[in-house]
């Protein structure tokens, strides 16, 4: 895959993520919020063979650094992802332009790192970038799910209190 097609694919995926995220701000989150965790599953399934590839040659320090970088990149995403209970008694993602900016900054950092790490072979680079992605998607989605569930439980308790009165 040549670099221009790679960048095109990444830009299309990023555009899809941003489009879905901005659409989610106008639609209620249905159910118990399990769908918030689905991207973790979508990333874990293809990442296992990529990480366990015998052609991947990375030191423990490189794996740890990739994971720490991912966790650091998750912080702005976590801080800008919130949920609110609106007057129709449904839970929505809070409208937040800071999230879009944070997401784009994370994407730019990944592009810059990809260009900087030209000395690393393709399989190792792919595995390390999957670790970076897991490092920011896992904490971001898990904490987002926890934030949603707290609001969801409060909504259920409030509804029960209203029914008992």
In short:
With 165 residues, this protein is mainly alpha-helical. The protein is built from five helices and two strands, in the order αααββαα.
Q: How would you describe this protein?
A:
With 165 residues, the protein is mostly helical. It has one domain. It has five helices and two strands. A two-stranded antiparallel sheet has the order 1-2. α3 (60-80) runs antiparallel to α4 (97-116).
List keywords for this structure.
165 residues; mainly alpha; two-stranded antiparallel ribbon
List the helices and strands and how they pair.
Blueprint: H1 3-24, H2 38-51, H3 60-80, E1 83-85, E2 91-93, H4 97-116, H5 122-164
Order of helices and strands: HHHEEHH
Structural class: mainly alpha
Instruction: State the helix count.
Output: 5
Total domains: 1
Mean pLDDT score: 85
């Amino acid at each position: 895959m040549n670099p221009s097609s790679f960048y095109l694919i990444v830009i299309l995926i990023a555009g899809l993520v941003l489009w879905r995220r901005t659409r989610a701000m106008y639609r209620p989150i249905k159910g118990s919020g399990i769908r918030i965790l689905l991207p973790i599953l979508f990333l874990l399934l293809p990442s296992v063979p990529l990480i366990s590839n015998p052609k991947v040659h990375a030191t423990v320090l490189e794996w740890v650094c990739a994971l720490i970088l991912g966790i650091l990149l998750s912080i702005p995403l976590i801080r800008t992802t919130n949920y609110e209970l609106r007057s129709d008694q449904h839970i929505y993602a809070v409208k937040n332009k800071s999230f879009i900016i944070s997401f784009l900054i994370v994407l730019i950092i990944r592009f810059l790192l990809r260009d900087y790490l030209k000395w690393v072979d393709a399989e190792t680079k792919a595995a390390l970038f999957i670790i970076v992605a897991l490092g920011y998607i896992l904490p971001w989605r898990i904490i987002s799910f926890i934030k949603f569930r707290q609001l969801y439980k409060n909504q259920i308790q409030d509804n029960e209190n209203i029914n008992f009165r």
